[in-house]
Amino acid sequence: AFKVNGVAAIHADIVKADVFPHFVEFYKRKGITDKFIGVTNGVTCRRWMAQCNPTLSTLITKCLGSDNWVKDLALLDGLKKFADDDKVLDELMASKLENKERLAKYIKTTMNIDVDCNSMFDIQVKRIHEYKRQLLNVLQIIHRYSVIKAMSPDQRKDVVKRTCFIGGKAAAGYFVAKKIIALANSVGNVINADPDTKDYLKLIFIPNYKVGNAQIIIPANDLSEHISTAGTEASGTSNMKFVMNGGIIIGTDDGANIEIKEHVGEDNIFIFGAKNHEIPDATRKMK
Questions:
Q1: Mind listing the pLDDT tens digit for each residue in 28-42?
Q2: What pLDDT, on the 0 to 100 scale, is given for residue 148?
Q3: Spatial separation of the C-alpha atoms in residues 252 and 254, rounded to whole Å
Q4: 223-226/248-251 β-pairing
């Protein structure tokens, strides 16, 4: 191969330090220091903004004066001057609400579940896998349900309403992934039917996740979950799609989350959990 590349900055470091250290040293001795490089994955904003989120795209084009940003996302820096423009912010929120109503209509049509569009839409849609930690998400939803359930009616008035969406497919022979899907559906059945909590918290597992319904789901996000154990996600691309559509990421210091944090700033992303270099020690302590 002419080059060997990782698909995110952290992945490139892992490839050099853990996967191919002997080859890195071999090429260094030959005077070749750029055999192993990093080229971060990407997504097309033609599909994941312009096509799937026309109201947001129209607003951005109006603010910037052209649609050249579709081919050059660096032009989005021009939106910073509108950060305190009430008219633009109102249009932005109207766009978000329209996208949430579109997803709510899809859920009602396909699953016959009513969704409160004034609730926070907390979304995790991606391939079902243990390292992507949908199980962790379900466990925190169970905890949130237990806390709300224990509250008095007056205390619940201060709760931020939240609708949690999980979606994704499991490989045909992946037993554990299928059990995670079953668990998410079972937990949702309990939470969504509880008269004490259903107005404050819902969990909906969206079946048959694919590009078609992703274009409805992703623009509706307020918060998206990208919570793989640090060092296990090579890059990820759904994190890019979600943040491009005006949502906040909650995630770990993993994959492209790291580079997204560098671009949006630490105030505009929620990062938690151990760093990649801390994982081996944490694993030893667990054993």
A1: 999 999 999 999 999
A2: 98
A3: 5
A4: parallel
Q: What pLDDT is stored for residue 287 in this prediction?
A: 83
Q: Which of 103, 70, 124 is nearest to 239 (CA)?
A: 124
Instruction: Give the 3-state secondary structure of residue 95.
Output: helix
Describe the strand order of the beta sheet including 162-167 as a list of residue ranges.
201-206, 162-167, 120-125, 223-226, 248-251, 270-271
Q: Distance between CA atoms of 17 and 11, rounded to whole angstroms?
A: 10
Handedness of CA 179, 217, 273, 282 (dihedral sign): positive
Spatial CB neighbours of 268, under 8 Å, sequence gap ≥ 6: 248
Tokens of 98: 């329209």
CB atoms within 10 A of CB 208: 9
Question: Cα–Cα distance between 160 and 147 in angstroms, integer?
Answer: 13
Least Cα distance to 223 among 163, 167, 177 occurs for 163
Interacting residues of 243 by C-beta distance below 8 A, sequence separation 6+ = 224, 249, 260, 264, 269
In which residue are the tokens 């995790």 written? 124
C-beta separation of 95 from 55 below 8 A: yes
Backbone torsions φ then ψ of 54, nearest 5 degrees: -65, -35
Q: In 3-state terms, the chain is what percent helix, strand and coil (to 5)?
A: 55, 10, 35
- Whether the model pTM is above 0.90: yes
Whole-number mean pLDDT of the chain? 96
Tens digits of per-residue pLDDT, 89-105?
A: 999 999 999 999 999 99
CB 56 within 8 A of CB 25: no
Rounded mean pLDDT of 1-7?
90
- Residue 10 neighbours by CB under 8 Å, 6+ apart: 230, 231, 253, 254, 255, 258, 276
